[in-house]
Amino acid sequence: MEATDIYKTITKPSPEALFKDRNSKFFGYAFPITSENEVKHHIEDLKKQHHQARHWCYAYQFGKQEKDFVFRANDDGEPNNSAGMPIYGQIQSFEVTNLLIVVVRYFGGTKLGVGGLINAYRTGAQMALEVSKIVTRTVNIEYRITFDYKNMNTVMRIIKEKNLKIIKQTLELSCELIISVRLKDASSIFEIFDTLYEINIKDLND
Asked: Looking at the domain that runs over 6-137, which CATH code has it been given?
């Protein structure tokens, strides 16, 4: 069965990519994002950098699993679906998420037609992704485990056996651990701790 708890993304902005067609220039950029709020900031920066350009078309998607994906495509004044959707098509083609792709156009004096625009924006987005470093990440669930100090050995033994990652720990008379578990292992790990006497586990993603 294919693992559904992995996703692909980028961790840093791509180098600038340039595509030319009949004197029009298309500059492609990819940026890692985790929310819509970051989109405006990147667009504003590019508008300052390319203040003489004609269009700043973009598409973005964030979310770690298909059921949670949020996406948008923007043609920024180009004919309907000739820019934003071809850019978004490359996000789908490369199977990446949590990123924004912007293609900035300088008009070269010759109209490209809708077909030419679709090709140019698609290629600009593709080139930006080709020069990006794409990484694979896992979808993780966080649990809080609380227990008395006397149960420390029991808890730590399971964490070591199952190779679990501790994100935060408070080890006093009353102890608290926050652990990160891969989605595919989450229910079995929860069950192990949930059945232990005097040890409480809570899902922090609820």
From this structure: 3.30.230.30
